[in-house]
TrEMBL record:
UniProt name for this protein: Stp1/IreP family PP2C-type Ser/Thr phosphatase
PANTHER family (UniProt xref): PROTEIN PHOSPHATASE 2C (PTHR13832), PROTEIN PHOSPHATASE PHPP (PTHR13832:SF860)
SMART domains associated with the record: PP2C_SIG (SM00331), PP2Cc (SM00332)
Domain PPM-type phosphatase: start-end pairs: 3-243
Domain of life: Bacteria
Provenance organism: Paenibacillus nicotianae
Pfam families with a match to the protein in the record: PP2C_2
């Protein structure tokens, strides 16, 4: 019912890919997608993102069929909090993982309805013919300055501390998870990505490629290729979700809002 694609690359600068990505189905009813961008250096960032993704998958893979929107929202929220606990306590037990953490953006879809949970500056976008809409708000110092009208969008793009997070998964014992609901229509594409994509290419490029009339997997690869061509200064990860219009009657049986 939902077409999906994912692609990830370590980029031209980093020695390892500290991003992790996973897309899969649960109970043949839900689609789960996760992008995590690890931090803390070579070994720690890679470990943090993998632990986060594995924990969320493990918690949600037994999700019962037919759950309400409220129950699924709570399940995704709790799975991300559990991942925070796992990453935080792993770092406490091993000095080589000191201060490791990760961003996370995850979506749980049932038909055309979805729930997004996120921490950090990995993003979710809804791309349609009329607009590209950012569904998440970056938990960064620069975004706080923007919201308080202390800097402009132009200044934010080149701010020397634009990569400083105000919230991450696994760096503290407690964290707040942002949860949002979405509706995915025929002709729209849901994009999850790490900042290695959005720091390299603009909204117009994202929109053009996401809606291109080519297979979804090719669109995912093309987005990553554009970020690489623009410099590839970080790991780059994308996950794409699109309604299959050939099964529209089945696909639109999501949660009632």
């Amino acid at each position: 019912m939902i077409r999906t694609a994912q692609h990830s690359d370590r980029g031209h600068v980093r020695q390892v890919n500290e991003d992790s990505v996973w897309i899969g189905s649960i109970q043949q009813e839900y689609t789960l997608g996760i992008v995590a961008d690890g931090m803390g250096g070579h070994r720690a960032g890679d470990t943090a993102s993998q632990l986060a993704v594995q924990t969320i998958i493990g918690d949600l893979q037994g999700l019962e069929a037919g759950l309400s929107l409220e129950a699924c929202r709570a399940a995704l929220h709790d799975a991300i909090l559990h991942a925070n606990n796992v990453v935080f306590h792993t770092a406490q037990m091993d000095d080589s993982y000191h201060n490791m953490g990760t961003t996370v953006v995850a979506v749980l879809l049932r038909g055309n309805s979805g729930i997004i949970g996120h921490i950090g500056d990995s993003r979710a976008y809804l791309v349609g013919e009329e607009e590209l809409r950012l569904l998440t708000q970056d938990h960064t110092l620069v975004n706080e300055l923007l919201k308080n009208h202390q800097i402009t969008q132009e200044e934010a793009a080149v701010h020397p501390r634009r990569n400083v997070l105000t919230r991450a998964l696994g760096t503290d014992a407690e964290v707040v998870v942002e949860i949002d609901d979405i509706q995915l229509k025929i002709g729209e594409v849901l994009l999850l990505c790490s900042d290695g994509l959005t720091n390299m290419i603009g909204n117009q490029q994202i929109e053009t490629v996401a809606l291109a009339g080519i297979p979804l997997e090719e669109r995912a690869k093309h987005l990553v290729a554009l970020a690489l061509e623009a410099g590839g200064e970080d790991n780059i990860t994308v996950a794409l979700f699109e309604m299959d219009d050939s099964t529209v009657e089945l696909s639109t049986k999501g949660w009632e809002q």
